[in-house]
């Protein structure tokens, strides 16, 4: 099909001429001569004429100015029905009070709010799609990391199984050697005794033969009785040896747990894919506002309606007592526990509470924060430094501090560290100090941050604090519902999780000036909270980890939002 536009008036006269201009009002092309006539005619002199090349860019747009039902040009616009009308359509809109001229309502359409909103909508949609694509690419890369971690877990499990089986084999063979030696020693002892008896009998036989040949009858008579007496005693001794001799048969019975493992266990583990609804929020901009404003009620924030127990974790102890001061939920679903009574080790557990590995560190680990899927930051009990540890490569970046560090939190490329006698210090990931908040950090151990706020607890005076990133106080809360507050975490909607060490509970409070009506008790002692000390909330997985000091155990909960 030709891309040339022909002149409409010339075509009516059966003349074929190529158009130079296009009238957007008449929806017709004009050659140079007809254009002059069109511009000079009173009814069309105010029409909009554009070049044919510009028209080529918009000709495929399905924008008709002619009524489909009546075949006539649109002249009016009904704002009630948001519909253009021709003169024959008016009968169907007699009751509509807002019929206006289409020319009037479309005046300055290029500068209208509707067009600007449409542009914003398209740009917003492009941004959303771009973010979604980036998110999916990130998720794909994250899946590779999860696959690598699972492979490492499988290999580590296999190595531990091999080591344990090697140890069992060594112990069993050692036991076999001991028992074989004891049995052979018993046989050797009997053989030795019988050899002595054989020698004695042979000697008596020689004496009897000699006596028979050389001695007199009297000597033979008397000697026979002596030898007979000696033979009797020797035979009695031999019978005693034979009667007390044991026969041994060495056997093996494989432990039933091992045979059960061989018969019943057909796999080393189970690979599962946890499928969740994608929680990417498509952020709409204003749309469809060409003719009238719509009142859209604001969406209320989601709130936590329930906690669903996912798994329990029995924390391995180095001593009789454990003191979990920090914990994390990794993007993979695994968790890390920091027990500051355990020197130079943190423990990683799987998503179902199974032991995975010990992670080496430089001291008594105190508080943890997640930087990304590979890195965590750690503070140490009574140490003037913190470390960034790569969980995959085990590389460690040590950052010196001027005072002892306690709580630590990460947000938007910054580490916020509680330093005793100094305040809350903000570091970048290279270890450079970027800000200092002059806050009384006496008895401040736990900290959390999100967006533009920092939250921390003071156990001694039962208070929870919220300050800005400049250190300005926003609110402070104290109530007998939460006694000796320790661990603190924040959810997506700035709800603040706090555990009460003495009240044995987990609460969530609204971030804006909390009060008794704005606090919900989510878990109590009857739910298994015994001296709860450390908590962590993973916003992406919607999972909450709570660790007890009282019984040294922990639990992971799925957070149900409503």
Automatic annotation (TrEMBL):
InterPro entries xref list? 6-blade_b-propeller_TolB-like (IPR011042), TRIM45/56/19-like (IPR047153), Znf_B-box (IPR000315)
Q: Which intervals hold domain B box-type?
A: 2-52
**Keywords per UniProt:** Metal-binding, Zinc, Zinc-finger
Q: Which CDD domains match?
A: Bbox1 (cd19757)
Give GO terms: molecular function aspect only.
ubiquitin protein ligase activity; zinc ion binding
Please give the superkingdom of this protein's source.
Answer: Eukaryota
Residues spanning the signal sequence: none
- The protein depicted here goes by the name B box-type domain-containing protein
């Amino acid at each position: 099909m030709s891309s040339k536009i022909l002149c409409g008036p010339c075509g009516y006269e059966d003349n074929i001429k190529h158009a130079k201009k296009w009238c957007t009002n008449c929806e017709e092309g004009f050659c140079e001569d007809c254009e002059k006539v069109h511009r000079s005619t009173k009814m069309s002199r105010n029409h909009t004429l554009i070049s044919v090349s510009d028209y080529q860019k918009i000709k495929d747009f399905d924008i008709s100015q002619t009524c489909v039902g009546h075949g006539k040009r649109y002249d009016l616009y009904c704002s009630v029905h948001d519909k253009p009308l021709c003169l024959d359509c008016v009968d169907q809109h007699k009751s509509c009070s807002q019929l206006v001229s289409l020319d009037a309502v479309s005046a300055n359409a290029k500068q209208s709010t509707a067009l600007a909103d449409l542009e914003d909508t398209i740009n917003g949609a492009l941004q959303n799609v771009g973010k979604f694509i980036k998110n999916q690419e990130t998720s794909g890369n994250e899946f590779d990391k999860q696959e690598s971690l699972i492979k490492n877990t499988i290999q580590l499990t296999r190595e531990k199984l091999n080591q344990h089986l090697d140890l069992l084999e060594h112990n069993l063979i050692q036991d076999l050697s001991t028992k074989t030696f004891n049995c052979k020693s018993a046989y050797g002892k009997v053989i030795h005794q019988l050899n002595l008896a054989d020698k004695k009998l042979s000697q008596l036989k020689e004496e009897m033969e000699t006596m028979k040949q050389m001695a007199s009858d009297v000597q033979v008579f008397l000697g026979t009785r002596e030898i007979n007496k000696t033979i009797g005693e020797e035979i009695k001794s031999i019978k005693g040896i034979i009667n007390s001799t044991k026969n041994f048969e060495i056997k093996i019975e494989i432990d039933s747990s091992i045979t059960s493992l061989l018969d019943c266990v057909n796999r080393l583990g189970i690979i599962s894919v946890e499928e969740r609804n994608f929680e990417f929020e498509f952020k709409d901009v204003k749309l469809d506002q060409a003719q009238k404003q719509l009142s859209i009620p604001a969406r209320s924030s989601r709130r936590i309606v329930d906690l669903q127990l996912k798994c329990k974790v029995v924390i391995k102890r180095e001593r009789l007592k454990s003191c979990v001061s920090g914990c994390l939920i990794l993007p993979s679903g695994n968790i890390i526990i920091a027990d500051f009574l355990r020197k130079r080790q943190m423990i990683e557990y799987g998503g179902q509470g199974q032991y995975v590995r010990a992670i080496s560190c430089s001291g008594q680990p105190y508080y943890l924060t997640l930087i990304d899927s590979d890195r965590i930051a750690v503070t140490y009990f009574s140490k003037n430094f913190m470390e960034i540890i790569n969980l995959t490569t085990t590389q460690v970046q040590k950052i010196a501090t001027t005072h002892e560090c306690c709580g630590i939190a990460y947000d938007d490329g910054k580490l916020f560290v509680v330093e005793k006698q100094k305040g809350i210090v903000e570091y970048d990931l290279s270890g450079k100090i970027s800000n200092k908040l002059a806050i009384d950090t006496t008895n401040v151990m736990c900290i959390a941050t999100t967006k533009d706020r920092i939250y921390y607890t003071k156990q001694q005076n039962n208070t929870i604090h919220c300050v800005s990133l400049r250190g300005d106080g926003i609110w402070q809360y104290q109530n007998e519902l939460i006694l000796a507050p320790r661990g603190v975490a924040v959810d997506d909607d700035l709800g603040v999780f706090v555990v009460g060490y003495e009240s044995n509970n987990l609460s969530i409070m609204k971030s804006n000036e909390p009060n008794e009506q704005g606090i919900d008790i989510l878990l109590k002692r009857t739910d298994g909270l015994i001296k709860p000390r450390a908590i962590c909330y993973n916003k992406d997985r919607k999972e909450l980890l709570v660790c007890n000091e009282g019984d040294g155990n922990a639990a992971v909960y799925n957070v149900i939002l409503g």
